[in-house]
Amino acid sequence: MRLVKKAAAIAVASMMVMSMAGCGSKPAETTAAATEAATEAASEAATEAAEAAASEVAAVSGATVDVSDKKVGISIYKFDDNFMTLYRTELERYLTEELGFKKENVVIQDGKGDQAEQTNQIQNFITQKYDVLILNLVQASSAPEITDMCKEAGIPVVYINREPDVAEEERWASEKIQATYVGCDARQSGTYQGEEILETSNKGDINGDGKVSYIMIQGDPENVDAQYRTEFSVKALTDAGVEVEELLKQRGDWDQAKAQQIAQDALNQYGDKIEVIFCNNDAMALGALQAIEAAGRKVNEDVYLVGVDALTEAVQNVLDGKQTGTVFNDHFTQAKMAADLAVKYLSGEAVEPVNMVDYIKVTKDNAQQILDQLK
Ligand code: BGC
């Protein structure tokens, strides 16, 4: 291990200094020169050791652990997801570049949207004795089974993005299982979406008939993110005393192409009755925008459109008036938190079962600022 080697180098160098200084038969200059050379070698070795320590020993809020030989197994529900691609890129960067894990020790698998396949991958991580797992489950409802597999093997798990249910999270605490969740409270993002509609000049009632008529394009309804965003976006309107009419609610599975088709069909069927298109994420808002433009309609003039995530393209659309608003789903902070908690487990520290990161509302007012942050 590198760290041990460096420490040995320092020891050898200082032994050289000591033995040379103690050698009385040598002329004084030679001894001084040798001492200087040895001191230089020692200080070089010390600097290198300090650098190695900085890159290989991850220090997270007081916890210090040598991660140079630690293996992290990561499984993403599917690689073909815009938001999770940003998330996994940041996760890998942070683990290797900032925490000092070796690139070859951070292995990321594609769950391909198939729970059976993903469970197999996790089983392989376990057989290969990975030290910690970071998992974005295909189905959050598989958490109890997966948690038990990891518990048996003594491997801690950090779940991300798809939240297991409360009963499961409570079990981790009560049975002292090394499992935790990092995510965002999707009620907050839903509420922000509703507020963005309330903040428009006509509070979403474009045709002035006294009610807001909307369509809802949902993510995968198995995900609590999709359930909460759907519920709380509309709740923000009704809580503010605004009457609403749901024309359509359909699952688009977080997918741009599916959302484009749904929006296209809805625009054909309901025409200018549609005043708001709520999308549970930005990928689907991008799809809806394609359909809106193809139907010759204009966002913010004859229809409002909101999403969640703050994908660069969507934030640019907010700036350009082609999307009413979005909500920043902060993958930077979530990735950092997930990796830091993995390190805490490795250093034997206790970890809270649920760890939430705040969403940030994005409208024309702060879109440029968010865009700068995303770069
Ligand atoms: C994001 C979606 C993403 C989903 C994956 C959500 O939090 O907003 O864009 O597709 O997570 O589980």
From TrEMBL:
- Judging by the UniProt lineage, the source's domain of life is Bacteria
Which molecular function GO terms apply here? carbohydrate binding; metal ion binding
Q: Which residues form the signal peptide?
A: 1-21
Q: In its keyword annotation, does this UniProt entry include Nucleus? A: no
Q: Which SUPFAM superfamilies match?
A: Periplasmic binding protein-like I
An example of a Pfam family matching this protein is Peripla_BP_4
Major site of localization recorded for this protein: other
Q: Which UniProt keywords apply?
A: Calcium, Metal-binding, Periplasm, Signal, Sugar transport, Transport
Tell me which stretches of the chain form a coiled coil: none
Protein's cellular compartments = Cell envelope
Q: List, for all copies, the residue spans of the domain called Periplasmic binding protein.
A: 72-349
Provide the Gene Ontology terms for cellular component.
outer membrane-bounded periplasmic space
Q: How does it assemble?
A: The ABC transporter complex is composed of one ATP-binding protein (MglA), two transmembrane proteins (MglC) and a solute-binding protein (MglB).
Protein name from the UniProt record: D-galactose/methyl-galactoside binding periplasmic protein MglB
Source organism per entry reads Clostridium porci
